[in-house]
Amino acid sequence: MKRIMSLFLAAAMMFSLLAACGDSNGGGGGEGVTATAAPTNAPTEAPATQPAGETEKDETPAVTEPVSAPPTDDAVNLVFLLLADWGGKPNRMDNILEEFHRQTKEELNMNVEFLWLDDYFTALQMKLSAGEQVDSAFDAPWAYMETFASHGTYMQIDKYFHNDAYPGLKATFSETFMKNNMIGGKSYGIPLTQYFGNVDGVVIRKDLREKYGLAPLESMADLEHYYDLILQNEPGMIPFGANGYDGYIQVILRDNVIEAEKYNISFEPNSGAMSLLNADKTRILASALWHTESELAALGFPPDANRIFQSHYDFMHRWYEKGYLEKDILSQSDKMAMFKVGKVASYVIGVNTFTGIRDELRDALPGADAEVFVISEAFRSMAPGTITTDFRAWNFQCIPANSKNADRTMQFFDWLFSSQENHDLFEYGIKGVDWEPVGNSGYRVPAGKNPTEVYNMYPYMLTWTPRFIRIPEDIDESLVKYYEYMAREDTYVASSLAGMHYDSSPVETESLKIGAEINDLCIMYGTGVVELTPQKRQEISDRLESLGRQKYLDFHLEETNEALAKVY
User: Fold this and answer.
1) What is the pLDDT of residue 189?
2) Looking at residue 403, which CATH number applies to its domain?
């Protein structure tokens, strides 16, 4: 099953509409590094110097001929580079490696050394430039991976996958998954991820809900009742926290977006972009950007398109007028901190960030507690096909092209991904010492152990895979089902336009002008501060048209349909 994402998403948002208008992922301030988002302090520029051995551009064909498993008669020392900037070297890392070497001495005959580097991406560039021994390195598309891959700094590793000589890799990384994570049609890294999307909702004060005698929330009406009671009983507390306009509109009204698809409409509320698709959703018939009701009708959109578009902005204005949002909303910059000190009664999060938020609230405010209300009815019902994804990972392990130990390095990863037990050693530590299993798919810190002293690997750098996932025992029981839902393959639907790229320089000027205007619209109307009246919509539409909207839309419509024609 495939789904066409909004035209503007598909076109890579030439003027970064989503970046201008906030986070569309709905993560809402998740802590740590997730599978679907880059850290905020990741590199934003290409390396200043080219690493040693780098060619001008890697234009060699992908090498896919399977290789045999390497002999293990000779001992080998492997050097892995890992990032220390966000937490340092994990507790008991040396103990884990010692246990690995004990278990695999006869089988693998290798010594694995992990180097945890501060100022990681600078250090990575320097070590590769100096030609030092590096057999595997953490990298990512949001860092230097694509640049290093395109210049031949990283090795093509296609031949190790779908290969019976590496059964662990074959069982873990399907052909489709690897294809979706290629760069220029070649594999340059081992993709690391657990989930391909996130279930989002709002975190609320459970203790306050119970204080008011409310049952657990089950609908938007229940949530608004909770907000009304906050306004009545908690002077100075803001019912709903947001950092200005941070994309929360898409989370709150996600079901509107899902409903639009019933009318063959792809709607991206954070930018206001709409696309009308043909019956089998393989071609875009028309596209719109803040068009009026009559203009949408003239383009061929059904009447429901206008209702869906307008209802988003009417909803947020109603919330603003009722006092659910801070009046000076644009000055709010840290909703998480405000929630943890009792100044905000809720905000948008991804469920995978909840446990840390709950624990910090409990520490900061004795007697306080938190819970998550998943707003989307589609999510609450565990409906299939609700999250559109390109099935791409955000974190990778890459092998430098000058490594002399590629076969043995891939043998390590084959061992790592060959069984739950092997994987658990590096993700959770030594069973019975650092963790213990709970049922078939849970884990906890053993009784009497200090959670801050046991092994605490950052798995997004080495071990993440949908194949082996354990859920912490302290995850709120009501959220376990959502973790299981995120791990289900049928939760996701592939975008037909994943990986589509084309030269959009012919509309670069229009993109920049329209992007700046969209940013202003997000601030004014997406926050609900200003009511979106028919007169205002006409003024907005006229303004965007004067900035080259039609040229911009026509260009991307044509390019997108050309790309779709190659798929269907």
Assistant:
1) 97
2) 3.40.190.10
